[in-house]
Amino acid sequence: PEAITVAELANRMAERVADVVKSLMQSGIMATQNQTIDADTAELIIEEFGHKVVRVSDSDVEDVIASVEDKDEDLQPRPPVITIMGHVDHGKTSLLDAIRQTSVTSGEAGGITQHIGAYQVTTKDGQVLSFLDTPGHAAFTSMRSRGAQVTDIVVLVVAADDAVMPQTVEAISHAKAAGVPMIVAINKVDKPSANPTKVRTDLLQHEVIVEEMSGEVQDVEVSAHTGQGLDQLLEAIALQAEILELKANPNRAAEGAVIEAQLDVGRGPVATVLVQKGTLKQGDIFVVGEQYGKVRALINDKGERVSEAGPSVPVEVLGLNGTPEAGDVLNVTATEAQAREIAEYRAHAAKEKRAAAGAATTLDQLLQKA
Ligand code: GDP
Ligand code: MG
């Protein structure tokens, strides 16, 4: 199965395609630039050109970044990661802002501006909670399809004056598909037109049975505007987190998921990463999706430089060679060569997959025409 096209081989060696074709011919192999040759043949040619052979396969990649099985005694409690979902305009952003305000101590007030799409709060009881800015349902789905399970608890926001709407239903099915427990926040109860009972009965039709209806899903009436019910919501989250017994080993090579990433004019590629295992440190070498790098700086949700970030902590990571995608997994590796090889291997595999998909279509089209 390991094969490479002549053109790609030439490209990777930075040699002219014609020279590679000629060298193949001298070895008795007639191949045009788009034909594939097997790995052994490629190796011969590479050596012929005086280059070094570095083979990376799927299993090598897995070996390098193999999730080290953490022993029970190495696991320590970690903060829950909460995503707020719900229909547009039902108050997701307002609720996130209100939660941040209530947990900000008076000394900090005003000094807190959110820098990244995620933040941590400490409740009055001293519990730390990590909130992800709702990434949008599409992003949530794409992250899950990339294998990144980033959230432990979904807070489903439903406006009491609007009840269950299409994106509410979508959010319910995302949470169910991901197997993530839900807490219902019935928002805007300060409004005269608010009808929390309608929200609860609407939810019944989607098999979400809240505690008020003798079900098991916690429901809390809140107002992002007046602050009503926010403490109860945080308590509900804390209770749910306790039930989940969330743990991670902070003392290992870090693994995390990209929440968002962009190319910053001044700072280069920047990724917001939610650390899920281990502790990410300044100077760590890592591979993330098809990119790699060395942590040049870590910046927390308050915009401060930090030297490390442990499980459930969201941080901005600087020092990437390119911009990864939301949902890409970050793994710390032992050496830069490993990180680069894995990134290049993945980029190459993705390119081949696209090419194969393209070739199949062309063949289909040809057959249809024939
Ligand atoms: P999102 O689209 O879900 O993020 O919703 P927003 O947070 O942007 O809120 C949509 C609108 O609802 C804004 O005009 C908010 O001011 C308003 N809103 C949000 N929460 C409340 C609330 O608790 N009470 C009232 N009366 N209005 C709210
Ligand atoms: Mg919003």
Report on the structure:
GTP binds at residues 86-93, 133-137, 187-190. This is Translation initiation factor IF-2. It is found in: Cytoplasm. Keywords: Cytoplasm, GTP-binding, Initiation factor, Nucleotide-binding, Protein biosynthesis. It comes from Sagittula salina. This protein starts with a strand and ends with a helix. The chain is elongated. It is an alpha+beta fold. A hairpin with a 5-residue loop joins strand 5 (118-122) and strand 6 (128-132). Helix 1 (6-13) packs across helix 2 and helix 6 (137-145) runs parallel beside helix 7 (166-178). The protein has helices spanning 6-13, 17-26, 39-48, 58-65, 92-103, 137-145, 166-178, 196-204, 230-244, 336-369, and strands at residues 3-5, 36-38, 76-77, 81-86, 118-122, 128-132, 153-159, 182-187, 218-221, 247-248, 255-264, 268-277, 280-281, 285-288, 291-299, 305-306, 308-309, 314-320, 329-333. The structure holds guanosine-5'-diphosphate and magnesium ion.
Q: Could you list some keywords that capture this structure?
A:
single chain, 370 residues, alpha+beta, 6-stranded mixed beta sheet, 6-stranded antiparallel β-barrel, elongated, binds guanosine-5'-diphosphate, binds magnesium ion
